Amino acid sequence: MKTLNNFKIIGIDHGYGNIKTASHCFKTGITTHDSEPLFTKDMLTYNDKYYLIGEGHKEFLPEKQNDEDYYILTLAAIATELADEGLTEADVIIAAGLPLTWTSGQKADFAAYLSKSKEVAFTFRNVDYHIRICDVKIYPQGYSAVVPIKSTLKGLSMVADIGNGTMNTLYLVNGKPQSGKMFTEKFGTYQCTLAIREGFMRNTRRELNDYIIDEVLQTGTADIPDSDLEIITAIAEEYVAEIFRRLREHGYDESTMKLYVCGGGGCLIKNFYHGNLDRVKFIDDICAAAKGYEYLADVYLRAEAKNEGRV
């Protein structure tokens, strides 16, 4: 979280798998209740409804503004950042993002969605919050994760932001994004999970818990029979090979370019890619995009305030 003239700039990465701020990460899950549920550790109360944050799993939704859940998850994200500074009331500027090629078409609607209530009162983890949404800035995913280091990027580079729902790729020349060479595909890590789930059932006639799948994808192994691990590994290797095939379709050349990988898909490449990784750089900070949104908003707003003589 950054501060500018008493405004709190809070970056939020609305992932399909996890919600990230500059300092926190929690599962993109939510269940709604009309009465107070039994377990209330991560409960948010708003408009006489009770929401358990981190429960369940959100399905892929191309237009997040059509789902009330992402608004509630946004309130929870803001609360986690304010709690770090012991604040329960604040004037907030939200800095968020959208998939690269969707940003232009959806940013106005998404900004309106996130700021639909200028003043919001809610309770999270038994703490009452009162916030004022003063502005919303929307930036492209992927690029935000590398923008703090863009001045160090020389020659040809490609950014691959592999999230749970989408894969965003962006071509850069000396750190400058090329608008005609950016792509968004529904090819996130959840597509790999679905393929493993289906393939495992086909081969064994048994169901495989997503927890096991996630553990293997993140670490490369799990406490399961070798025969089961071999099935999961083979499908994950096929998925990663397809990632690089698509990157090559979008202009990636491993001999002349550096590849910057961010998002949860980075661990899949580390664990299941058998090619040359000498020119691949991993941005392992899961909060990198949220930090990038804050960075971009802070730079823009400070320049705007300076031009108007407010700083």
Helix content: 25-40%
Distance between the termini: 19 Å
Q: What is the CATH fold-level name of the largest domain? A: Nucleotidyltransferase, domain 5
Rg over CA atoms, rounded to whole Å, is: 20 Å
Shape: flat
Quick one: CATH class of the largest domain?
A: Alpha Beta
Estimate nothing, just give the exact number of structural domains. 2
Index terms:
single chain; alpha+beta; Nucleotidyltransferase, domain 5; 2 domains; ten-stranded mixed sheet; 15 strands
Describe the structure.
By secondary structure, this protein is α+β, with helices and mostly antiparallel strands. Helices cover 35% and strands 30% of the residues. The chain folds into two domains: 2-140 and 289-307, Nucleotidyltransferase, domain 5 (2-Layer Sandwich); 153-189 and 217-278, ATPase, nucleotide binding domain (Nucleotidyltransferase, domain 5, 2-Layer Sandwich). The strands form two sheets. Strands 1, 2, 3, 4, 5, 6, 7, 8, 9 and 10 form a ten-stranded mixed sheet that branches. Strands 13-12-11-14-15 form a five-stranded mixed sheet. Residues 11-143 form the Actin-like protein N-terminal domain.
Topology, please?
Layout: E1 2-4, E2 7-14, E3 18-20, E4 25-27, E5 30-33, E6 43-46, E7 49-53, H1 68-84, E8 89-98, H2 103-114, E9 119-124, E10 127-140, H3 143-146, E11 156-162, E12 167-173, E13 176-185, H4 189-204, H5 210-219, H6 226-249, E14 257-262, H7 266-272, E15 280-283, H8 288-307
Parallel strand pairs: 2-8, 8-10, 11-14, 14-15
Antiparallel strand pairs: 1-2, 2-3, 3-4, 5-7, 6-7, 6-9, 9-10, 11-12, 12-13
Helix pairs in contact: 4-6
